[in-house]
Amino acid sequence: MSVRGGVFANALRAAVFLMTLLASVSAAWALEEPVASPSHDVPLVLQASNVAIPSLPPTYQRHELGWATVAYPPGVYQRVQPLLDDANAMKAELANALGQSVLDHVEVRIARNAEDMAALAPRDVPYAAYASGVAYPSLHLVLLSLTAPIGAEATDLPEVFRHELSHIALGDAVHGQHVPHWFDEGLALNESGEKWFARLETLWRATLSRTILPLSDLDRSFPVENYEASIAYAESGDFVRFLLRDGDRLRFWTLIERVQTGQPFERALADAYGTDLRKLEYQWREDIAKRYTFWPVLFSGSLLWVVASGMLVVGYIRKKRRDRTTLARWEQEDAPYAVPHRSVADEVSAIPDAVKAVPGLPKVEHEGGWHTVH
Fold first, then answer.
1. Interval 165-179: pLDDT, tens
2. What domains are there in the chain, each with its CATH number?
């Protein structure tokens, strides 16, 4: 390796070390930062027959999809149209993911804001006040808000709808049997694709800081606030992705079928995948350690990573170009003074014939002429 290459390699190693150190500090700081709580969007309904569902306002418009009725206030059709256009494809994708025919009938209620959504919700079945969408699997009911409860920003209606519809579809597929909260939310996150980059960053931070939560803890008590809640949702989505890896689709379908027949979830998982949840979790942890420990540049979300790495590469390329330009200029400047290269044959041919003809006498060249040395 050249001196210049060695200097560059040392600089690169130093930059990587510095960025890794800063990323680790960032991961530690993240544990203290407040994180918005995810929406608890599947209220528990013990007896659906005893639940009172308010009537729709008379001004609401209805759109029939055959398997679903979508109701929404007047004047918002343009906001609702993307949901209507994608609804049938969503239903087909969920049926394929679960290996079951699902979503025979669903009622979808869309409100202008969170206050109106609460007025359309079943009586005495509370849900989180910060939810933009709510699913009631046993009622086959989905509630959506056009604006977020916090900040009043416009919601991504098709994305929120896909998330809530996933809860309804899973309830259909397992015939209402119990599944862990992390599994229910993990499937909905995978199918909706929402906040995927934020979830990747959360997993990266949790991997570096070693704060991944055991799935058994999530089954007993799912976090609802701060950074732990973000980790819980991120790892739920990623573990379900792990269960749906290439080649494991049939195992996932078998899991759903076994739960549907009343088999406890963990026993169904062990029978479908040929190993228990603890070993699967260990394999998943090894997988995320490989993916997130060595890819901080892609997933940290830190501007420092991008800027520092980019400047390092760009600076090196510019230096190489500058060196080439300097060498070329030097060659041009030295060209008029360059001594032409002459081979031995050229030197011999330059000796006068008269000199060559006198044998035994040494000859020397002086001021353009050849002289015999006496």
1. 999 999 999 999 999
2. 1-30+178-243+275-320 (no CATH), 39-177 (3.40.30.160), 342-374 (no CATH)
